[in-house]
């Protein structure tokens, strides 16, 4: 699953694709049918990449990517985000059995299911993330040796070394007198 470049923006519903960056902020495109483009101000907008989001777990935090993969495996039983809280809770026990039930609220589950329904049909959702073993197993990834950087030509002439006059070797040695 390659969710690189897919972000959640604080204060805005839905998910966005990071298109670029300018001096005013990040250029984002919504993933819904409207394809709305916005510029999110760098100083007062928080972006969260879906690759970096974790869910509270009992022992250790769960990665959102793993939970989305589990939801995709059970997509026949995935409820709508507007379902009853008890239905959401029982579904999350199936797809993320080690999540912390006291810290993960129903609103979090609704948000995750909304995100899943937005990205489930996207090609990024089904392709392997860059740098994973799945990508290497397909043979798509070729290992190429790193090219050495070429020296930039300069217009300045290299300083020439002037030879200093050689010191004359003394034939007399001064040993103890």
TrEMBL record:
Domain DUF5606 per the UniProt entry, residue ranges: 3-50
Domain DUF6852 intervals: 53-119
Domain of life: Bacteria
Region annotation (Disordered) ranges: 130-177
Amino acid composition bias (Basic and acidic residues), ranges on this chain: 135-145
Family matches, as Gene3D superfamilies: 1.10.10.1650, 2.30.30.730
Coiled coil spans: none
Pfam families recorded: DUF5606, DUF6852
Bias-annotated ranges (Low complexity): 146-177
Entry protein name: Uncharacterized protein
Upper classification of the organism: Bacteria, Pseudomonadati, Bacteroidota, Sphingobacteriia, Sphingobacteriales
